[in-house]
């Protein structure tokens, strides 16, 4: 009995891994919604803005399955120019994101800190990372 | 003698861990060199450009320890506008990168495909990813 059982368990394990992998490829290459947000912040409020942004990003990454990645940077020469590269699992995941309490809190907090906001939908050419 | 020796070994171990940790934080937060490249490509040569870009990115990620991440995308509404978010381990890693054969080949190949190139050095605010 023991000799029969082990190959079956092994087969189920391999099958599960294959299904999981297909789901991941699908999510990353087909339905993924990506966007670049370019934000110019009132330079006198930069610290407060950065704090609010970090709080929003941390809450979204921790609590929303559909928020896949955030890369937020500021220009070296002009720190009040912020770029955020956002990856969501789908357009629906993004729509759900903007209804969350942490996103609404962020928008209310930064309303009079943001001087300019430019949003651009983008499509991946290639994403590769050795980080983490 | 034994009672004296063990606390010293323990102290050296803790000190080693502290030094190692500081080095890692330094490498990730201080020496990392990040840049956003915005490229406008001749729309009639977009496929050829994308092929050359992918070849360059794959070679750099595979062969250069100091090339940490590339995120290359095009605008959804205007595919000839490309954005590449680049992360290198240090400025020196970047300087070594532009001397490699694969980078020189890329530059020569795309020389008459690129209509506009804008490079901006950036500093991280937050980088979080669930991808991979």
Keyphrases for this structure?
homodimer, 132 residues, alpha+beta, Alpha-Beta Plaits, four-stranded antiparallel sheet, 4 helices
Report on the architecture of this protein:
The structure is a homodimer of 132-residue chains. With 132 residues, chain A is an alpha+beta fold. Chain A has two domains: 31 residues; 91 residues, Alpha-Beta Plaits (2-Layer Sandwich), CATH 3.30.70. In chain A, α2 runs antiparallel to α4. The termini of chain A are far apart. About 8% of the residues of chain A have low confidence. At the A-B interface, α2, β2, β3 and β4 of A face α2, β2, β3 and β4 of B. β4 of chain A pairs antiparallel with β2 of chain B.
Low-confidence stretches of chain A: 19-28
* Strands of chain A, total number: 4
Number of helices of chain A: 4
Shape of chain A: globular
Main sheet characteristics of chain A: 4 strands, antiparallel
**What's the CATH first level of the largest domain in chain A?**
Alpha Beta
Distance between the termini of chain A: 43 Å
Helix content of chain A: 40-55%
CATH architecture of the largest domain in chain A: 2-Layer Sandwich
Strand order of the largest sheet of chain A: 2-3-1-4
User: What is the CATH T-level topology of the largest domain in chain A?
Assistant: Alpha-Beta Plaits
Total count of domains of chain A: 2
In angstroms, what is the radius of gyration of chain A?
20 Å
Q: Indicate the multimeric state.
A: homodimer
Mean pLDDT level of chain A: 86
Largest interface: A-B, 38 and 37 residues
Summing up helix and strand content along with how strands pair, one would put the structural category of chain A as alpha+beta
Question: What order do the helices and strands of chain A follow?
Answer: HEHEEHHE
Proportion in β-strands of chain A: 25-35%
């Amino acid at each position: 009995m023991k000799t029969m059982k082990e190959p079956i368990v092994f087969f189920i394990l391999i099958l599960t891994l294959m299904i999981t992998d297909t789901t991941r490829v699908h999510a990353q290459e087909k339905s993924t919604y990506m966007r670049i947000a370019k934000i110019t912040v009132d330079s006198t409020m930069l610290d407060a803005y950065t704090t609010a942004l970090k709080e929003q990003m941390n809450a979204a990454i921790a609590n929303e399955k559909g928020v896949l990645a955030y890369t937020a940077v500021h220009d070296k020469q002009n720190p009040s120019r912020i770029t955020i590269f956002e990856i969501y699992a789908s357009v629906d995941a993004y729509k759900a994101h903007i209804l969350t309490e942490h996103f609404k809190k962020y928008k209310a907090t930064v309303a009079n800190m943001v001087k300019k906001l430019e949003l651009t939908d983008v499509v991946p050419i290639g994403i590769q990372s050795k980080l983490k």
